[in-house]
Amino acid sequence: MTEYALLVVSAIVIAAWLSIMRARESAIRHAKKICAAEDVQLLDFTVALEKLSLARDQQGRAALRRTYRFEFSDTGNNRREGRIVLIGNRIDSTDMDPHLDGTRIGFPLSGSTRGLPRS
Question: pLDDT value at position 44?
Answer without folding.
Answer: 80
